[in-house]
């Protein structure tokens, strides 16, 4: 359908001023057989949706949109894109989307507008390189056709999506041989990425095991130096590794009978000596800091109560508080 020159110029001025060229065409010059708001959308393939409206289901092809086959890499990308959009449209309370349909011999073709300011789903797919332009049957205004061709020109110039592969887009569709190679290349790249990720994960696991093994070995040496120590446990927060706040929390469990038989002086000696050994043995590990490798507390191995800890305020004398 040819438009008067004056109307084309007027629409062009409006489009430049507002950035809504396609919207201007839809509302001012393009005629539609059906239009409204769907209650739900379902994806058939990269070109086709089924919408639910007024108690019936309507199958629609996206006007001007031709995507690669669904089993191709870029065909899968188009389907993923549509499913994501449809999920947004189908969310409860989202009523900011409208369909515009034209009846053809093969069914309905149409456009979806959504958002504020309004965007065209069809235009977005072409602009992002998910589809090529194919002019559907029926009467379409020059301004509508040119808006899609302009979107395709941009995608092609920037080599987006399907336009990133020389020779893939043909005048009749898509080259199947190039399509197979694209899919194979992406599958190979994904395999390599998975293998690298798995290798990194294995390395992280081994490094984690090695780090904990070093801590355990260091603490075992401290225990072996003093038979009054029953066992030593520790905790640490991996999320704080590499930060100034990182420390290893160590709990030294002293044999209850040995603790009960010791004088206060002997208790202080055990605590101070083992504490120094713990700090020295943990210093130099990957994430610890010299002099502040661990926070240490002392417990009874049988009673389980706290028997000694560092004083909160230490001005003079021993830094340790013997609790019993």
TrEMBL record:
It holds the Pfam family SNase. It comes from the Bacteria. PROSITE patterns: TNASE_3. InterPro entries: SNase_OB-fold_sf, Staphylococal_nuclease_OB-fold. Residues 183-225 form a coiled coil. Residues 34-165 form the TNase-like domain. Keywords: Coiled coil. The keyword rRNA-binding does not apply. This is Nuclease homologue.
